[in-house]
Amino acid sequence: MVDSNDQRSEALRGAAQRRVELKQALSQVEIAAAAPSGDPGWRDRLLGQLELLRIALDQHVEEVEAPDGLLPELLAEAPRLANQIAVVQDEHPMLTRQVAAAIELATSSADIPRVRAEVLDALNAIVRHRQAGADLVYEGYSVDIGGQ
Question: Does the structural domain 4-141 have CATH classification 1.20.120?
Answer without folding.
Answer: yes
